[in-house]
Design brief:
Helix 1 (3-15) packs antiparallel against helix 3 (31-43), helix 2 crosses helix 3 (31-43) and helix 3 runs antiparallel to helix 4. This protein has one domain: Hexapeptide repeat proteins (UDP N-Acetylglucosamine Acyltransferase, domain 1). The chain has helices at 3-15, 20-29, 31-43, 47-64, and strands at 66-67, 73-74, 79-80, 86-88, 93-94, 99-100, 105-107, 119-120, 125-126, 131-133, 137-138, 143-144, 149-150, 158-161, 166-169. The longest helix is centred in the N-terminal third of the chain and has 18 residues, at 47-64. The strands form 3 sheets. It has a 6-stranded mixed sheet with strand order 3-6-9-12-14-15. It has a 5-stranded parallel sheet with strand order 1-4-7-10-13. A 4-stranded parallel sheet has the order 2-5-8-11, with no helix packed on it. Helices cover 30% and strands 20% of the residues. By secondary structure, it is α/β, with parallel strands linked by helices. The radius of gyration is 16 Å and the shape is globular. The protein is built from 4 helices and 15 strands.
Length: 182
């Protein structure tokens, strides 16, 4: 998918529209959209142009606290709810229509049975201060409650809450993912 189509899908998640006015409003008023704007341009380019966009990403990483390397695989319709620290490992894979809240960490485990990084499915809502680490898979339509510590595979349509995370099947994200892009 082209960088501009990904940018439009991200914009749609914020406004439900993708007009020029919405793009300008999103770019100047929504920190998460602005960061992802440059992230998408960087991921869709090569050579010196990519280096140029990486400088913008670096600037906004310091300004807003988003630590999302340009190597991270992120699907369409990515939504960052508020600015604040968000740390995502550059090898992580994130599906379509995912919501991220402040304080979220999606990280790597460097040894043991969980060695690796998470794979996150489509239509996942991740609450504030949730920690998701290790070589685990989060299924589609999962709600990860604020403050959850997730180190296990989570089946589709589930709710995870607590530290350590407890999975409750059949209580997914219905009503939490708005303006779903298709």
């Amino acid at each position: 998918m082209s960088a501009w189509k990904l940018i439009k899908s991200d914009l749609y998640r914020y406004h439900g529209r993708t007009g020029v006015k919405d793009l300008l409003k999103g770019f100047f008023l929504i920190e998460g959209f602005r960061y992802m704007f440059f992230f998408r341009l960087c991921a869709g380019s090569t050579g010196l142009i990519r280096l140029w966009w990486r400088l913008f990403i670096r600037h906004y990483a310091y300004k807003y606290g988003f630590q999302i390397p340009h190597t991270t695989r992120i699907g369409k319709g990515f939504y960052i709810g508020h600015f604040g620290t968000v740390v995502i490992n550059g090898n992580a894979s994130i599906g379509d229509n995912v919501n991220i809240s402040p304080g979220v960490i999606i990280g790597q485990v460097s040894r043991g049975r969980l060695k690796g990084v998470p794979t996150i499915g489509n239509k996942v809502w991740i609450g504030s201060n949730a920690v998701i680490v290790g070589n685990i898979t989060i299924g589609d339509e999962v709600l990860i409650a604020p403050g959850a510590y997730v180190t296990m595979d989570v089946p589709a349509g589930s709710l995870v809450m607590g530290n350590p995370g407890v999975v409750s099947p059949g209580k997914g994200v219905e009503g939490y993912i708005l303006n779903e892009c298709r």
